[in-house]
Amino acid sequence: MSIGSQSSAELANHALTELVKQSIPQHVAIIMDGNGRWAQAQGKPRVMGHKAGVKAVRRAVSSAREMGVGSLTLFAFSSENWRRPDKEVSLLMELFFTVLQRELKLLHKNGVRLNIIGDISRFSARLQKQIASAMEKTADNDGLILNVAANYGGRWDIIQAAQTLVKQVEAGEIDSSQITEERLSQHLSMQNQPEVDLMIRTGGDYRISNFILWQAAYAELVFTDVLWPDFDESTFKDAVDVFATRQRRFGLTGSQIETLQAEE
Ligand code: IPE
Ligand code: IPE
Ligand code: MG
Questions:
Q1: Which of 10, 35, 99, 255 could make an SS bond with 49 (beta carbons 3.0 to 4.6 A apart)?
Q2: Helices 86-109 and 46-67, interaxial angle, to 10°?
Q3: The domain defined by 24-263 carries CATH number 3.40.1180.10
């Protein structure tokens, strides 16, 4: 569903008409922020916030399924989060491992396809193995696609796609003039999924923190002060309601969009 390289005449195509008409975002990405502050506000260690955050993940997955969202992408650990104190990083790794183990059965039963995105080569062999087997087990499911971004950075994603293309040029498989948006997109994480329609950030800050950059080029952004452990079905629905009121223009004018929306 790349729209980046089309001319304005081509924009009035079926895909764009569908996009401007949708009231339920097909792809939602969430920056799950505020775990530490949630715990600290209650005089608890930060890790308790991460643990409470797992329950919010469960709620988000079930709300996404209920609302008919096709892809849900959750930012669990950024490429910059390694800068945190060693103790917090190792607790997060341990939590990631146990949650994967514990939740997999239910996710699978509910037809969820789990897809971990990010540079997992930095994780322990044990965790990498766990990730591979979880993805394999759920690979044929056709329900919600749950992308979990772990050791993920938007810049990393673009670089790894660029490196793949450079290797193809070096091997003489393609010419450098064939490096197009379309082709680069095909090597990014989530390449077979719709672009992100709605990006939500909890925790009260207004930034993207190197989350999906390319795939969210035309995402609607919704920021909420709710801290991640407090995120529930109603927070999610509120964000989707805000999304439904937005006019996504993709570079067109408002009246062009109204014309598209009126099309059968
Ligand atoms: C988000 O919550 C979870 C991760 C980054 C792993 P934080 O841990 O960033 O919580 P705050 O922002 O410090 O409150
Ligand atoms: C973004 O939160 C990363 C995740 C939610 C995993 P951070 O808490 O790391 O973001 P900054 O540091 O406030 O930008
Ligand atoms: Mg934070």
A1: 35
A2: 30
A3: yes
Contacts of residue 127, defined as CB under 8 A and 6 or more positions apart, other chains included, come to: 93, 96, 97, 120
In tens, the pLDDT along 1-51 reads 444 444 445 545 778 999 999 999 999 999 999 999 999 999 999 999 999
Q: In degrees, to the nearest 5, what angle opens at C-alpha 118 toward C-alphas 112 and 121? A: 115
* CA separation for the pair 123, 119 (Å, rounded): 8
Q: Is 105 exposed, middle or buried (0-12, 13-18, 19+ CB in 10 A)?
A: exposed
User: Catalytic residue numbers?
Assistant: 33, 81
Token output for 195: 């672009």
Query: Ligand 2: which of 81, 92, 208 to mutate, judged by most atoms within 8 Å of the beta carbon?
Result: 81
What tokens were used for 36? 């530490």
Q: Which atom of ligand 1 is nearest to the CA of 38?
A: 14
Reading across the β-sheet that carries 71-78, which strands appear in turn? 113-117, 145-152, 71-78, 27-31, 198-201, 220-223
The set of residues, in sequence order, having a beta carbon less than 8 Å from that of 92 and lying 6+ positions away, is 50, 77, 81, 84
C-beta atoms surrounding 224 within 10 Å? 20
Q: How far apart are CA 184 and CA 172, in angstroms?
A: 17
**Ion ligand 3 residues within 5 Å by Cβ:** 33
Report which ligand 1 atom has the smallest distance to the Cα of 46: 8
DSSP state of 171: T
Tell me the domain boundaries of the chain.
Answer: 24-263
Terminal-to-terminal C-alpha distance of the chain: 20
Q: What is the pLDDT of residues 115-137, one digit of tens each?
A: 999 999 999 999 999 999 999 99
For residue 163, give Cα distances in angstroms to 160, 166, 170. Answer: 5, 5, 10
